[in-house]
Design a protein that fits this description.
Blueprint lengths: L18 H11 L3 H11 L7 H8 L10 H14 L3 E7 L5 H12 L4 E8 L2 H9 L1 E3 L25 E3 L2 H4 L2 E5 L15 E6 L8 H14 E9 L11 E5 L4 E5 L10
Parallel strand pairs: 1-2, 1-6, 2-5, 6-7
Antiparallel strand pairs: 3-4, 7-9, 8-9
Length: 264
Amino acid sequence: MSTGPNSSQVPAPIGGPDASLVRDIAARTGFAPAFIWDKYARLRVSPASDLQPLIEQLLVQETFFFRHTRQWQMLRDMLGNAQPASVTAWCAGCATGEEAWSLAYLLADMRIARASILATDISPVAVATARTGRYHRMAAMGSFRDLPAFASAAFPTRQGEVWTAPANLRAIVSFDVHNLMDNPPTELPRQAVDLVFCRNTLIYFSQAAAARVLRHLAGVMRPGGLLLLGTAETAGGSPLFEPVHGDDTVLWRRTATPLSDDVA
């Protein structure tokens, strides 16, 4: 499975972090060493005894509402066909929350009777922002830059407008700090989650770390549950998932393969 800059043998650049610091960050986050060295050099950050402030600067928190609209349209169509009475979802690596609030809007708009979304991120700063549920419309490259037609009427259209998550959406979303390298959050029911988002995250991980995370995700999902990855990511090397192809996009369905049989 290809997940991005995966190399433990790329030489450290002059002026970059020492090898022990890279190992510590990689072990904590799953980031590929090449990614850590590249970001570290460009940020000109200083080593710290506490890794979290450094990790915060390494994180890529680029996100916006309904990012990759083809995926959202495909998911909407699949939910419309299935008409589930309930949906339990995990937004893993949710950054500042736009993805989680997008999903909450979609499930509410489709009148899913019982919906529950846990959204998590390694960054306490990002999670604090996500919990506010408050976003401004910017002139360009902001949180509302590419809204699909089915959601455009519900979100700001003019620069400076503010969207605040309404009570009905806040009732179904909760946020928490969680590291994807750790075991899944205890709040999630094992082998019962219907829907998992983990998008534009694994691309920065080493191959071994990405495989570990996919096992964590698969462990909470029911067979037939859906996984959404970023457009540059794939679960194609794992027997735990199979592709579901749509219009120029792909989702991943949890197979019935038990974790014990995963040899990817």
